[in-house]
Structures are given as structure tokens and as C-alpha cells.
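Progress narrative, work stream C.
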Amino acid sequence: MLSSEVQVESASMKRVERSRQSLKYTLDHRHAPVLEVELGESFTVETEDAASGSYRRAEDAAHLLDAWYLNYSPTMANPVTGPIYVRGAEPGDTLVVQIERLALDSQGVTYWRPGHRPLGDSLRWSDLGKPTLVIGRLEKEEVVMDEAVTWEDSHVRRHSLGLRVQQSPFIGTLAVAPEREVETPGLGQGSWGGNLDVRDICPRTRVLLPCYHKGALLYVGDVHACPGRRGALWHGDGNPQRRDPPLRGH
């Protein structure tokens, strides 16, 4: 997600790289922190897309119904990076997260399958019941979608699309570890944050979260390149979100 405003990162700025160790599929206060920062310190987080990078090519539409993450209940989708331990944050405090910048990957993806979206089982809009994948290129400040790809009769079928939409990146999932529950970043929402998919969680925004544990234990993920009117149009930044914020915790 390349923002229109270029910001040079300090060479000494702390970073969490996207890896098996840093990506989590639960929000759990028992996770070991992947990074420790001071109050007011900026840091950078790399995130993965909602489908854990499963859909990168048009041919991947063949796996819209049997991707590995669908074999779990709830699905192992919507991974988050974290937790980030904020020194000085105590239970009962309010953590102020300031989003300074979002940097997107070079492509994005959106997809649906039967039952996957509000209209996925619609009789009126039956085409939305077909497993469909759209991969878009991120060019300048737009997402360019040349084609949609469907999985029909055991074949990948391509359909011309020719759409361009304005980029407007935001963070879909932002949370601290809940007090005692273990929640999923794909379905969970609560006072601790979660998969909120609010397009206002974007650069130059501050988000206030209550702390339930020492260090706050912050999680970030599910970055979107552009929102729809209801929910998000674009999963993740489409792909891994190469660089998340930087973020700053107060």
C-alpha cells in the first residue's frame, strides 16, 4: 500500500517482519511478544493479507473452495502480527495508537465463494455464488482490476473487467489482547478492538484501546487497499501488506 505521502523511515526504527513466528491466528495474552517498544515510540509492522497469501495468481481460483485455511473452524484466516509489548502500559490504562503511514504491496486481491458474502447465496444475484477471484495491480493511487476469474466445472475461466478504483488504505484488524478470552482476529470484536473493518482507521488517525494486560499486547493486521460502502472491497492490501504503519503507542 503505497501512500501518496512519502515518509523516510529512520534506520533505527524497530520493525516486525512478516514471518511464521510473528503472524498469529488468535488474540491471546499468552503469546510471547514479537517486539517491545517505549511509550511514544514509532515502529513498523509487516502484515499478511486476509487469505494468508493463498491467492496470488489467477490460477489460484482453483483453490477458492479448498484452500488450506478453510479446513479449520473458525477458518485460519485474517492473521495479525503481534503482540507488540508497550513498556509502561498497565491494566486499566488507555492505549492511544497513532497510525502514521500505510505502505501497500504491489497487488491486491478480493474473492468470494458460495455463502462467503451477504449475497453469496442470493437467488437474484446468482453469479455471486460462483467462486470468484479478482487480482488487482496497485498503480500510483489506484487499484487496477483487468479481469475476474471464476472456478466453474473444474476449470478456471477469465472474464474481462476493466475497473479502476481509488486507493484509500486502512487497517481492518487492530486489537489488544482480551482480558481472559482467546478470540480469533477474523471474527472477534469487543472492547479490546478486533476485526473492525472501519475505514477511518487510516493514516493520521488515533485509536484508543483499553489495556487488560501489562504491556497492552497490541495486534495489527488485515490491511485493506480500498473500502466498499458496506465492509471492505479489498482483502488486505491485496497481498501481504509490505509495511504497515509506522505505529506509535502512547
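Work stream C, second folded protein:
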Amino acid sequence: MVTRYVSRTLVLQFCVLAFLWCSASLATQTPPLTDDLYISTIPTLPLHENAALSSLPGGRSESPAQHDGDLDSDANNNAHFQWKKALQQGFFFTGFMHGFRLATEPQTRDALNGHWWRNYKHSIGELRGWDDGDTFMTSYIAHPFEGAIFGYIAQQNDPRYSRVMWGDGRKYWIARLRTLGFSTAMSTQWTLGPASEASIGNVQLRDSPGFVDLVGTPIFGTMVMIAEDIADRYLVAPLENRTANRPVLAFSRMFLSPTRSFANLMAFRYPWHREGRLGINGENNKLRKEMLRDYAEGTGPKLFEYTPPKKRSGEAASYPREAPIEIESSTHYETFLGGGSCIGGGGSGAVRIKPSLQLISKVSGCMVINMPKNQSGDSMTYQVGTRWTPRAARRVSPFLQMMAGGRRITHEIDDVAKRDALLKEWDDGAGPSHYPKRSEWSAEHQENGLALSAGGGVDIALGRAFAWRVGNLEYTRSWLGDVDQIHAANGLRVSSSLVLKIGTW
């Protein structure tokens, strides 16, 4: 028992130090923040410049972490995404999360023993269904925060869109689309990649696997970013027009934008740093007090005042009404005609090849409901097909679609008494030398076969960027045998979803 304790402690210390050292060695290439430097210009978000700033020398702060730029909102339009810094900061955050897991989860430390490649492949292969067994707080609060942090890491390394605010119209939504792409890639890496929960800790071999994190982390994370941006414009910015109190300003920026603050830490900036905003310490604070005093006396403008983006003169841009690309996030309920039903969700992508025809691909998972105690069932479907949209340019657009692919049904029966006994023996040091895997205390029955689906529904456009797929009713046919009491050969599925339209705005 003493040997096991010493071994675990050494593994913990080595792994945490290795992760943090490797991550820090990358992240420290980003210069640290010098918040007490004098900022010579206040850039537009767009914002108004105080006349007192015009007499200050130079057009840019020398602080490497406060690249506030000049007052031209188009100055960085040709700048490229800073991939190196974004990946450094993204993997620094990944290393931070792994360090936390290794420090707090004995089962993760234990999984470092064994054949890495074989366990990694097995862990990925276990992915199925929708729910992963985590609590609501973990799946729908913590993981979306993770997605938002990855999103803000992307934004702070994207010079063209690093200063967007809620209300900036098309530019704002392009920025969110770019951060969604980066967040999707990094959160998928965290779940399934070579430096993921699957490769370091083999989490899918211990806990229930599911698609909820792959879908929810980037999408709900983007919603968190939008909420923080709204709070920043309507709560934080007006507060900065009224006070120069440093604790109040720091707390308001961090409390109302927690994920952006954490992303700043990954770049070794102060958490209250805001791109294009006056700092809160040192000479920045003195300047802020002077500007607030001028505004109170009527001799100067507000410190921050939002103005809509300038509309360019000349010919207006023209965009098609039929979206060239669509990305969908859906939730669905399916009833199996042979008995049973399931609830879940999924995601799909569609490419338009003709004004009324799309090629689509979709992956979804659902959890079988009303299963006996200590039993669970799930379904995973992966399909490609076509969608006919005769009125795609209209606000109300009906459609028909047909898809083909595969379906996997899994029924798992847990021996809870055996699981508890194995865990107790492992905790006491009297049982097996490794943390018990699900396969040691559960039995799994599985079928995989060809699957077809056909149906239709209606979309309602919510502006140029979004559509609500109000209802989609499909008949499903799967060529697979019964999996115990789950009879999924024939079914009816009804779904509703949010659709992001790309290329129409």
C-alpha cells in the first residue's frame, strides 16, 4: 500500500510538472503585460478620441500586450490570423486542464500506466450516444466556458477582429464564426485528439462516452461569448464612463467577462486587459481620471461612446439568399416502432450545389429512455445524403431530404455491486493494480448496420445569418438485429434545430 501511494505521488508530481513546464515554455514566448505604461491613443471599437490625447506623442503604445493601434478601424484589415500564438495559448490552456485533472483525479493518473496507443484507440472507439454521464454543471456550464475560452484565445490573436463589439453587424458575426471554428477544433482535440482526455486518462474507458461535449462545447461556448460581449457593451463600458476606481473596474471586467479574462491569462496578460481599451493602473488611471473630470465639467466627451461601424460608400455588397453553406445543431426525439424511444442531438453540414439542392452529412446520438435500473442504451447515426429546397430564398422554406449511412445500437448492463467492490478494493490498495474500467463491471451488447432515413420539414429564416428548423419529421430504417429489448429497425424521428447560414451576409 505504501509503495502504491509513493508511486501515485511520484506520477502525479512528474506529470503535473511536465505539463506545466511544456505549456509554460510555449506560452512565455508571449511578452508579459506592462499595465503601467502610458497609452497615447484610444482606438475605436469604434470609440471617440478625447481631444486631450491628440497632443500626446506617438500613435501607439509601446506595451507589447496593449497593442491598441491607431484610430483607423480598418488598419488591421489585411492582417493575418496569428496561428503560432493562438496554438501556443490554446495548448497552454489544454495543459492547464490536464494538470488539474492529474492533480485531482486518481483514475486519470492511474491510466498513465499501460499501452498508450492501444488504450487511446479503444477509448476513441467507445464514443457513442449523446450523454456522457457528467453532471448538468459540467456538461452545460463548465464545458461551454471551455469553448468560450478557446474562442477568446482565437479572437485575441486575430488582428482583423480582435476589437469587435456587440452591435458591429456583419463584422461581429464573421468574428464569431471564426472563433467558433477555432473553438470547435481545439475542443475536439481536447476530447479525442492526441493530447486529449481519450489519450491522457482514457476517460471513455471509465465513464459513459457521448457526443454532448463535441457539440455543446463550441456552440454553447459561442453563446457564452455573445452574452459576455453584450454585458461588456451595456454594463462594463457605461461603468467606465463614471468611475476610475481600479478595484471596481477590474472586478467588473473580470466578473462580467470571466472567460475572456481567463483567455488573457493564457497570453500572460492581466485578466482585466481589454484590447483597444484604456488600462486601469499607473498613468492609464491618471489619464482616465483626467478625462472623466473633463467630461463632468463639460469640456470633454465621454470616455467611451459606441458608434455603429461606418457604412462604406460605393456599390453595396450583394449576397445570395440561398446559403452556400449551412451548419446545423439539432435536438431530436425518436420512437422505435418495435418498442422503445430515445432523446438526443447532433450536428450536420450542408453544401449547396444548386439553388434548390444540397449535399448533407450528419452525425447524431441519442440516449434510450425508460430503461430498467442499472441499464442504459444509446444510438449513434452517421449518414450522408441530399436535401431538396425549392423555396430556399424565401423566409419560409419547406424541404425534403434522404440520407444513407450506418447506425450503431448499444445496450449496457451495469453490475453496480461489482463496480463498488472493485473501487473499494482499489482505494484500499487490496484490489487490482489499475483503476477499474467499465468493461470489468458491465456487459455490453451491440449491433451495427446500414441505416436510411427520409423525411422533410420547414425552415423559418431569422435574418440572413440564422434559420430555425421548426420541425423535421423522418422515417428511419435500419438493417440491424434487435439489441435485447431495443428494437430500432424502424422508427419515426422528429427534430428541431438552429441553422447557421454562411455566405448570405
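The mean pLDDT is 81. No further action is required on this item.
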